[in-house]
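quick one before i forget lol
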Amino acid sequence: MSRKQPKDGGGAGRTLAATFNNNTKGGAMIMKSVSIFLASGRRASAQSRDPAGNGPNSAHQPRADSHSKDQSSTGTARTAISRDNRRILARMDELNGKLNPKMLEMYKRRTHFSKVEVEALCKIYRKLVANASMNSKALAASNPGVIAKAGSSMDGIDRSVFRELLHSTFDIVTEETLMERIFCAWEKGYEGLPIRLEGWLMGLSTFLKGSQAEKTAFCFRVYDLNSDGFITKDEMFALLRNCLIKQPQDEDPDEGVKDLVEIALRKLDMDKDGKISFQDYQEAIAEEPLLLEAFGQCLPSDRATMSFLSTLQAQEDSN
């Protein structure tokens, strides 16, 4: 019934670190991309702050013959179309990690990041989305039967890139079920879909600088495998079975998992109804914060958090 413990004394789920270290080529690429983009200048952002359409040849100058009803109607229609186009372009910019000043201020208010940090994270987002697009095209090139999805560069961060980021940047090395749940729980309302810019920023805000309440809500979403509002015995069993070292002499290694499930229920099932509700989980974590990741690691290590935030801080200090 002994739980897997990494050599450095980390939490549950890091027991695959040795295996992952044998296959870190993709992780190193992601980490290098993150470092390059955090250290890069802000020329693109400075250019994005220049107002558009203010030159002497602006297409929206008043028409001399505005008294004509037909021409007035045409001008109104063009204005409406222009407005629609601006909205479409703004949405495209958001998907690709580009923010205008208003959106930059909005995300500053909605997250725990400064403006400079938001801009740096947008640069990382653009790089990760580009990596996903390149991976898709490389897959199509190496497998003629596979067709690269059109517009994939605007879809967001996919599973493969996200998992490499968790491994190489945030020291999260865990089994497949939990890794999939972290991806699905990252952006509320878009479970299982590529992570968009808004979800990227909001998720990282909780991930790196979140309050205990925010992190509690995130971890509960991860552990609630079927998203029904409860962590049941079956879900606990599925999460904990990979945290045990199975000894060859064990006749029934799953018995150890069942024992762990009962221990978890005693600690977390506050109303004793045989399952863990969000209220149960909140109350238990408030009493004992160490239970936050009771069913496996789904938050970055302190070392990884400090390293990532210090890099963002260095970017802010340089501007």
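fyi The chain has a mean pLDDT of 74.
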